[in-house]
């Protein structure tokens, strides 16, 4: 008797959970999609505000001081093995 009661309650609970998931999961996905679309719109608006053809540099790195000039290279001998 306990087993049958457990099975009936389990089947009812799974049916209710399945129904709730069918209702609420699409709403959750729609919310996520709307947020992604809004972020894309904001990013597109930000890019359109900057004038076309102009380059803006925020940071210019310091040139590296090499001990070997660029005109000189390092040569490594090798043998072809056949």
TrEMBL record:
Stretch list, region Disordered: 40-82
Keyword Transmembrane: yes
Protein name (record): DUF4834 family protein
Keywords assigned by UniProt, alphabetized: Membrane, Transmembrane, Transmembrane helix
Compositional bias segments (type: Low complexity): 40-50
Segments traversing the membrane: 6-25
Residue stretches of biased makeup (Acidic residues): 71-82
Residue ranges, compositional bias (Basic and acidic residues): 51-67
Entry-linked InterPro entries: DUF4834
Residues annotated as signal peptide: none
Domain of life: Bacteria
